[in-house]
Amino acid sequence: MLKPIHRVPCSPALAACQQLMRRFALWLCDPQVCGTSITQVNLQVKMGSAIEGDWLWQLLAGSTGTKALLDKAKRIAGLPPVDKTGLTQWVQAVSALAQHFGPTPPAALPVTPPNGWGARDERWASFKALMVAFYEEGLRNGLPYAANGAATADAALRVSYDQFVREFRAAHRLDPHPDARDVCVLCGGPLVLPAVDHWLAKKAFPLLAVCADNLLPICGECNSTHNKGQKDVHTSGAFSDWFHPYLRHANGAIRLRYDDAVLAVRVESATPTDLVKVQTLDSLLNLGQRWTREFKAEYRRLQREAQRRHIGNVQALQQRLMEYRQDLSAAEPHHEVHALLAETLLDPARLQAFAQ
Q1: Which of 55, 245, 310, 314 stands 20 to 30 A from 80 (CA)?
Q2: Is residue 223 part of a domain?
Q3: What is the pTM of this model?
Q4: Where does a domain end: 98, 125, 141?
Q5: Number of domains in the chain
């Protein structure tokens, strides 16, 4: 979250799909609903519109004839009332994600499956597969909504995964030119092949699989298992010590400092109130380690340049480094790290050491 992050034009479509997921989940938990209730006609009536009902029926029944998702939906619809009550409470709690970042957040978000179900419980596995299908199959092939969130049967207008990634990259490109480099909004490094991350992992919170506030295209290194991956971004369901890409942004809260004692970039908080949140973000993404690596690599590049150009005296090096700092662009990857490097090297004592 080194860079500003904001919702993109097609976010209303994602929000509309999130409501469809919630509506569908709660309908399945209705005590009056059973497996035989899940028909195309009933979905047309109960899911908001015939367009949404037809789309959902196709998602469940599938074009291959396997109807695996339909069987899972019937499994949930056939749960006993006590299980349906527990699942309903879980759905309602998770749906209130935005409230957890307001002035009076509710109790901690439930971080385990409802009803005491284990992570591999057949009932939980069925529900999770249903919800994740909205992302894996639904978003990939096109949601039943246009960008503004209106239901549509026109395939050409339906928002898809590719459209979301394309719009996000365009909206967050710091240099609007189509040939300019993209920058990862989390680490500030290059965004070459973006991977859409679920900020709250969909394996734990499948209801948020298509949530507009939970999807974030980031670089592959940020999304690797060593860094963000599937790690938790909460403390036992509480978010007080955590940033959120859309609901509680870190832009402007992070400060970089080079520590001579350990020869490393330190990730610090710009204000005391954000200290713990900055620490958890650094730990989540290993920012200090990664920025130190970039700092040293760029230092070595400048050192080779000085050797190649036979720049050996302090004054000439100072002039070159001032030019380097002036030429830095906030639209380029690693701008903050390179700016810190320039500031560090222009210190008289360090400049003398660099010249040797």
Answers
A1: 55
A2: no
A3: 0.92
A4: 141
A5: 2
For residue 356, pLDDT beyond 90 = no
Alpha-carbon dihedral angle through residues 336, 341, 347, 350, given to the nearest 10 degrees: 160
Structure tokens at 44: 């047309």
Q: How far is CA 215 from the centre of its chain?
A: 4
In a 3-state reduction of DSSP, which class is residue 149?
coil
Please say which residue of 79, 113, 141 terminates a domain: 141
In the chain the first and final C-alpha atoms are separated, in Å, by 37
Q: Residue 339 pLDDT > 90, yes or no?
A: yes
Classify residue 183: in a domain, yes or no. no
Neighbouring residues of 118: CB distance < 8 A, sequence distance ≥ 6: 124
Q: Which tokens hold the place of 140?
A: 């990939």
CA distances, 314 to each of 73, 106, 305, 348 (Å): 72, 59, 15, 9
Lowest mean per-residue pLDDT among 87-96, 190-199, 255-264, 306-315: 306-315
Q: Is residue 257 part of a domain?
A: yes
Decide if pLDDT at 103 tops 90. no
Instruction: Residue 120: give the domain boundaries.
Output: 11-141
Residue 236 lies in a domain: no
